[in-house]
Amino acid sequence: MADAAGRLTALAEQVLGAPLPVRLRAWDRSESGPPGTPVLVIRRRRALRRLLWKPGELGLARAWVAGDLDVDGDLYEALDLLSGSLWERGEGAARTSGLTALLSALRDPGTRAAGIELIKIAGPGLPPSPPPEEAARTRGGRLHTPRRDKAAISHHYDVGNTFYERVLGPSMVYSCAYWESPGSTLEEAQRAKLDLVCRKLALEPGQRLLDVGCGWGSMVLHAAREYGVSAVGITLSEEQAAYARKRIAEAGLADRVEVRVQDYRETFDGPFDAISSIGMAEHVGSARYAEYAAELYGLLKPGGRLLNHQIARRPLTDEGAYEVDEFIDRYVFPDGELAPVGRTVGQLERAGFEVRDVEALREHYALTLRRWVANLEAHWDEAVRLGSPGRARVWRLYMAASALSFERNRIGVNQVLAVRTPESGASGLPLRTREWRG
């Protein structure tokens, strides 16, 4: 097939009514489009069949993960330029994209010829099988039961601790860092975040801390070592727990720090003086969030503090139209859901908490994600060996796209400090709450 890139560019621009923002290179080595921009590389015709059979974000994701689609040049710039052309934008039923427009051409008499031409270029064949890195569509059981949540967590986290070491660096903290300046190291910024959480919780020697979704144990280790608390970390990942326990033993803190493979709904040994939940609540789900808030409230002693660190999306005009991102759901965080920060605050208040402080860290997460992408790219060959080419591609796309989403204010992240204020009304917080002790 001669000049596949030129034919595809002409088709896309005919349907979109606008020039393609990036250059296109096809499997036949033909190129078309504006020079000096990143190049969207269609390595195999199979990529087009993926889009024909599954239009929208999931078809794109499958083509990317399988290596049928690639970018030559700056990935961030390419994603930014393609946003609104190939990437879906909008709300609910109004969500549209260039891909949707291309596929609707098959049904629109005015552009049906373009759709037929696309089918010819894609070539015959059944829909390609999804890449093996994709989570099964039917994962069994009702949404957000302990059993299903454990399976979802395993899909994301049980891919090898060494893989995560290469991405996250020595801190092994998988959440937004706290940057004094962009020139700080990732390890400095992650330590600053852990210390900020400890100071907001006003941790003191002898107190009990519960860390919900403890990951590889960094928070409980920091709190025990630097603030003298006894800490319990809970996770649903067997691999995380084993790694955390080894770190705890090596630090000589096994007498004060315990890590369990346990659901927050199955934790009954409160009360705790403080609870941290850092990057975990995104897995809870809207239907279970009231239960999550109530469970944590019940685990705190009167006067105890909760620090809830959680990614938030922008609110929709019609909240009932919210749809989970297909790429994230199938390849990154199965069953994960985002909520606006206002809803999170309301749920915590309805559970009985007094919300005392909300700190937005949106720009901090963008910086963090860019450092993780740089780590992954610097260890690319090893990451591929430790996981798979598809797994490494999933992570590179999801982290780069997420960095842009934070930078463009499509999503944010917030630390919400809440107190189980006793009947006396004494919250225990200073009059000027941003003057954190420590």
Descriptive account of the structure:
The protein is an alpha/beta fold. Helix content is 42%, strand content 15%. It contains 17 helices and eleven strands. It has helices spanning 4-16, 46-53, 57-65, 75-82, 98-104, 112-122, 146-157, 161-168, 186-200, 218-227, 238-250, 289-299, 326-332, 341-350, 362-378, 380-386, 389-407, and strands spanning 23-25, 31-32, 39-42, 69-72, 208-212, 230-235, 257-261, 272-278, 300-313, 354-360, 411-419. The protein has a seven-stranded mixed beta sheet with strand order 7-6-5-8-9-11-10. The longest helix is centred in the C-terminal third of the chain and has 19 residues, at 389-407. Residues 87-96 have low confidence and may be disordered.
Question: Main attributes?
Answer:
438 residues, alpha/beta, 7-stranded mixed sheet, 4-stranded mixed sheet, 42% helix, elongated
Q: Which stretches are poorly predicted, pLDDT < 50 over at least 5 residues?
A: 87-96
| Total beta strand runs | 11
Elements, N to C (H/E)? HEEEHHEHHHHHHEHEHEEHEHHEHHHE
Q: How many separate helices? A: 17
Global morphology:
elongated
The average pLDDT score comes to 89
The proportion of residues forming helix, as a percent range, comes to: 40-55%
Task: Determine the N-to-C terminus distance.
Answer: 68 Å
Q: Could you say which structural class the secondary elements and strand pairing correspond to? A: alpha/beta
Gyration radius, in Å: 24 Å
- How would you write the strand order of the largest sheet? 7-6-5-8-9-11-10
